[in-house]
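Can you give me the bound-state structure? Components:
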Amino acid sequence: MPKRFVNNYLRTILISTALLNGTQTLAHEYRVSIDDDLERLEVEARFDTKVTSVRARSQSADRYVHDIRDCETNDRLRTNGRRLQLPDDGIRCLRYEVDLLDAARDERRNSALVDSNVVVSPAAWFWRPPLRGDDEITVRFTNTDSINVSVPWLPVDGEPNTYRLTASPESARAPAVFGDFDYVERDIDGATLRITLLKPYGRLGRDSIVDWVVQTAGSINLAADRFPNPSPTVVVVPVGRSSWSDSPVPFGRVIRDGGETIELFINQDRPIGDFYDDWTATHEFSHLMLPYVRSRHRWVSEGFATYYQNVLLARAGQYTQQRAWQRLYEGFERGRGSRPEMSPNDAASKRRGTMKIYWSGAAIALMADVELRRRSNGEQTLDSVLRELASCCLPSERSWSGPELFETLDRYVDEPLFMPLYRRYANSPGFPDYRATFDELGVRVSNGRVALEDRGTGAALRKSITGVPAGR
Ligand SMILES: [Zn+2]
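Here's the bound-state model for the whole set.
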């Protein structure tokens, strides 16, 4: 069949399926302009069809929005909390203004930034209809000659300052940034990192921050081969010395909100060398090897990222072998002491016992990795299973449950392994007993100190996990 004919044929099937299901894929268009003083946004939305529901995600969004109108009739519209009050038959066109200055004052990310860099989450200013299935919104920023824009959405090829937003888990509120910040793109295997660097840089040079981000993100490929998201956004936010931590990266997170954003809060007054020794960024990038896991099974995503942060820092040569296993041991012991009366699912659901959540999941990740390597003589590993997951399902635009993820991982191995671990530990109080696994790896512990056997099958197995790969 000629290709064009096949395409038309397929399209007919797709369209008929959509009609049969009572769904139609919608494509809405937004134009956003920012004034030069970064005080105001003007937004105009043209909807694919009449929409009857438009809302913002933040509770406070209605305080910043002004002069909301149906642009076909010029009628004024009102808000009702986070919703717009719309006529019963809906609207096709919407126009409104946003007091950016006011919204920025309420945004904690701005606390240490220079005045010419403004962060305001789209949650506070982006009023939109719900997105179902493959619905999408294209957002074009105009008058961006003097103002840079960074948003969590995917850039549209060949159309500058234009982005595409699709359905996503909305796990937190991604940042949108306006002003004279630096934006750079860097390629690593499998991805173009889109890096937004907010000012001030303190004692750090721009290039040294970029190098650190690139090298840390690249270390994921020591497990993944190819970076699991082809176009992630990285936003580096200077916050100075934080009151809760004197680490160079006091806080980081991954936000799944119209694309995947890795947000790194840094102390710009620390020397760059200290950043390579900090685990936060490695932990955050490791999260991208899994999809977003619902919060009641959060120990799965936090546990895997915690396991990999130590494994990858060892493979990259940043941690000595001794240090990596000592840290794993100390973490497991902190986990064991945290909320022993709760199961991992309990702790995650009730948001209690951070150490329990992070380290019980890490212990289960280690057990799975060792079991896989032993069973398959090193043919299969946690890395290889996650690579299969990535080629099937990542980046994912929806939320996964823990069991759904574990069932999927079991499809890539000869005999189920992940669901049996889930059934054994997810709803059991106490802490996974990792001692037999340590024995198997030649990791001995006495008086709180880890000693590594240098020879034997255990040492070989252990080195296959944390050893620096040949050629590095
Ligand atoms: Zn995490």
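A couple of observations. The chain is about 35% helix and 25% strand. The first strand starts at residue 27 and ends at 34.
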